[in-house]
Design brief:
By secondary structure, the protein is an alpha/beta fold. Helix content is 35%, strand content 20%. Bound molecules: 6-O-phosphono-beta-D-glucopyranose (BG6).
Amino acid sequence: MQAIDLVVFGASGDLSQRKLFPALFQLFIDHHLADPVHIIAITRSKMPRKAFLKIITPNCQLRQDCQTHLAEFFSKITLLQVDVEQEDQLLQLRQTLRPDACWIYYFAVPPSVYAPLVKGLAQHGCVNAASRVVVEKPIGQDAHSAEVIQKSLSSAFDEAQIFRIDHYLGKETVQNIMALRFGNAILEPLWRAERIDYMQITVAEALGVENRGDYYDRSGALRDMVQNHLLQLLCICTMEPPAQLTAYAVRDEKLKVLSALRPITPMDVVHKTVRGQYRANPQQKNSLAYVTEAGVSLHSTTETFVALKVEIENWRWAGMPIYLRTGKKMQRQHSEIVIQFKEVPHKLFRHSPSNLLSNRLVITLQPEEKIRLFLNTKAPGRGMSLDPVALNLDLKDTTKQRRWDAYERLIVDILQGDLTLFMREKEVAEAWKWVDPIIQGWQQWMPTPEPYLAGSWGPVAADQLLARDGHIWHNPE
Ligand code: BG6
């Protein structure tokens, strides 16, 4: 195996503490981080090694509380202080890199630092044709800022060297959607607008903005969740089967979906979008309104909830609505994809409640991992009246193997140079191109978000969005 120097910028930051180092530790325990991998943890300000290890230890211990393993893992980490403005510190990094290794840079830092970082690395001989760079969202605030970020990355790295993370793609449950769609012949003939009435994609979070109020208030749910995670889920649910499971084939198919999204123009926002913001819930203990969270402006009009009616203008999906919904402080954490099939062409069972008669496939992504297919069966003792019953598959019962965390999977792919689960530049650009007019429309027509109670399923307007089409949101019982 080739030697790898994995250089983590922002090593003492929130992402590194919560996700990266615990995932690296898990990979180490499971023998996926072979010997030639050397981790260089970079902090901007000077930090004693002991203090650094102390902050990454608690989350690593949640994976395995074993001092011997932790000590062995820590021995693979070199701690360096690098401020990109400091010439000598960049030179020191250059000297630390092993000449025969593949140098991988993980930018766990705000995007505003990317440009000076890329420039400093390139100028000090830290980038070659084999190097890779890993960047996290947010990749910009709009199409223009995303392009600026792209320009700075591509000044030193080719597209095939850039790994753009959307951690939803690393989730096994999300990859399982592809497995379900393309590994099962019975679904494909049904997977189209002629057979499906509508789809719903919900990513509901019970948590609020936690300690990220400052970032979130400048972002909001549309940029934070929809532009990336929800659109990626939508792509995976609706893309054509790729010819191969390669990065180019899969990403090409996703890009085609993004390019085929029917634009929501600024004039459309009132009919096709809902934006909400949570208020304190007097029924809940210590419930806060969004505007009183730390780091958030008291007069903030940032949305913490979004619902959208989306359409794809292509042969397979024309005319079928896809409803997207995401929010903070919702009733519970719940991510789910609902595929509502059309009714049978002729209703034989007239005595059954009509809303029970069409089949529904429900793919729950988190916190549980379940697939349920609702079929109609005869209700016992009631003549030929039907009741829906679910074929219920709880994926945790199907294997004893531990499911990988998204970051573990993505890090392994980065080390192996596999780009399949990473976004390409055009995907990011297309997604912004579609999202930007919605933001413009909101500024013009919907500057104030609709209130909803913390702990609810979002604003009433979100129910009305579906009611106009004769549908309802499928909330978990
Ligand atoms: C992040 C968002 O990308 O995804 C957060 O910035 C959000 O606001 C998080 O909470 C949700 O991820 P997960 O894996 O907890 O569903």
